[in-house]
Structures are given as structure tokens and as C-alpha cells.
Amino acid sequence: MTSSLRQGRERWRWALQAVIGALLFNGLAAGQPTTQITLEQAIDLALKNSPAIWGSRTQVEQNKAQEITANLRPNPVLLWDTQFLPFFSPGGFSTDNLSQTSQFDLGIGYTFEIGRKRQARLLAAQAQTDVTTAQVADNERALKFNVAQQFIAALLAKSNLEFATQNLKGFQDTVRINEDRLKAGDISKNDFLKIRVQLLQFETDVSAARLAKVQALFSLRQLMGYQSVPHGYDISGNLEFHEIKSDEADLEARALQERPDFRAARLGVNAAQSQLTLAKANGKQDLNVSFNYSHAAGTSSGSFFFSLPLPVFNRNQGEITRSRFAISQANFAAQGAEEGVLTDVRNAYEAAKNSEQIVTLYRSGYLDQAMESRDIAEFAYRQGSATLLDFLDAERSYRTTQLAYRQSLAGYMLALEQLRQAVGTRDLP
Prior knowledge:
Oligomer: single chain
Number of helices: 10
Number of domains: 2
Strand content: 5-15%
Distance between the termini: 68 Å
């Protein structure tokens, strides 16, 4: 009696699941289509909506504003004075008396920069803008990799969810078949209960895979910008295998052309050299010229004044020496950056090749063999020529192999993204 009630409840539960699934499917079909985001779209959205990227881009604009400041000329100086006013003899404030006894001076002065200081300041500011622009591009490179990494994690979670759902459906069919066999007396109740309990593992896999996908999509949405995609968006794409076509030497040569951090290091050498040029220009003394109009004792006159500091002690020697050492430092930094780029490419290339070999091993026949082993064990168990443990072990081996293959495929795709980051471009053969 108890067994019949339990079986009746199971049938009602399966029927209820089928009805709920149909309602959900019809509701989704009648509603708005789910927004599908590709990897390239995700990267574009991240670049458009990342506060960190926008913040770094303002540094370029700040440097351009400093270029304006560096290119400004000195302001002229207006000079005037009045002397010998009869403040203590108020009766002396008459036109004739002021013209004969007081003195009035009006002049204008200007500093002529010697040594092309303004041009040197502008070149130094422009060189710094170039360095900052390359640094911003490097920040964008890092963001692209972060987005790709999170996107691949979402693809893996999506693939695992599809596989877990498929496995759950298949094993539910197995449970129903063995329930019929139990009724017919082909298997023992103990074997049926073992199969029935094993269903819990498949249901747990579905729940865990669904949670992993939801969390991966939320993390990806944070990188793209919460307002840029709707709440119920999904990703478009699958775990795929694409063989590497380029060799290591070509990738290294291209990395030295594309990597923005290496470009920033090389531009840093130019910036250091421009600072040395500016330091030498600042060592030149400026010429101050002014013209004064004077009216004294009824006579008007004009005067020219010239002022040029003598570079006896201060010729900006310290800054010139420091700038020379800064050039050496920039050269060493560029050399270290080049070695770092080559090391990154070699490590990423070897990691990608290693992951490629692992994926190739799975695709060479192990996946088919695991599926065939499971099918044979299931058929043999149904025919009574294999034990339940053999069947469950083959099912577990197939599931483990499939999950490991998907993990290896995701690892290979991530290795390719690391290679793209190391080279500095997403356009790889």
C-alpha cells in the first residue's frame, strides 16, 4: 500500500514538473525575447561603461590641457608711477605746478624667452600625453581580458547547465524504465532504490550549474555596466575549439608592435629626452625689455631698459644632470618592458599549446569511448548481464569525462584570451 502511494506521488510529481515546464516555456515564448550578448558586444559595452576607463581617459584630457599651459607666452608687464606730489602742500595741486615739479612714468615690459623654452615645454607636454594615452590603452587591454575571462566562465556555466539538464532528463527516463522493471519483477527493490537515490546527484548538478551561470552573468554584467543590459539577459555563443595558426616568433614580433604597455615604455624614453631638452632650455637666461615714458620738470622723454641675468652660478646644472639619469632609467624600463612582453608571449603560447593538446586528447576518441562505455553498461544492465554498480560506475565515468572536457575546453579558450592579452590584440590568426 505504501509502495503504491509512493509511486502515485512520483507520477504526480513528474506530471506537475511537465506542466510547470510547459507553462514556463509558453510564457517565455509569449514574452519579450531574451537579450543575447556576444563576447565582442560585452567588450564594447565594458569599454563604454567602465568608470575606471573613463577616469583614466580624463588623464589624457588633463595632459592636453597642460599642453595649452606649456605653449603660453609670458604676459607683458605694465608699469606706472607718480613722484613728487605735493600732498603736504594742497595749494600746489595746480596744472602748472604738477607739470613742472611732479614726475609721471608709464611703461610696458616684456620677457623674451631665450633657448626656445616655450617649444621645449610644449614638446615635453605632448610627450607626456603620448605616454598617458598608451597607458590608458593598456588599461583597456586589461579590461578586455577581464571581460573575456568572465564571459568564458559564463559559457562554461551555460554548457554545464545544458549538460546537467540533459543528464537529468536521461536519468529520469532511466528511473521510469526501472520502475516498470520493478513492477514486472525484473529487478529488486534494492536496486531500484539505489538508482532512485542516484537521481539526487543529477538534480544537485542542475541546481549547482544554474547557480554558477546566474553568478557568472551577474559578474559579467558588473563589468559591462548594470544599466547597459536588462536583468534577464543571456550570452550568445558556445565553448569552441579553434586551433592556433601563428607561430611563436610571429606573435613575439607582433606583440612588440601592439602591446600598449611596451609602447608606453618606449614613449617614456622620448618623454625623458624632451625633459632634458627643456632643462637645457631653462638653463638659458631670459631677456627682460621695457620701455618707459616719463614726464618730469615739464619735459617728456622715453627710456628703454634691458635686463639679462648673468649665468654665473645657476645654469640649471642639477636638473640637466637629473634629466640625463632619467633618460637612462627610461631606457632600462623600456628594456625590461620588452623582456616582459616576450616572456608573457612565450608563457601564454606554451600554455595555449598545452591546453590545445589536452582538448585534442579528449576529442581524439575519449569522449566517444566514455559515451559508448555508458551505453554498453546500460544495455547490459537492462539485459541482466551487468550489475547495477557497473552501470552506475559507467554513468559516473561518462559524467566526469564530459565535465572535465568542458573544463578543458574553457581552459583552452581562456589560454587563447591570455595569448591575445600578451600579444596586445584580439586579432590573431
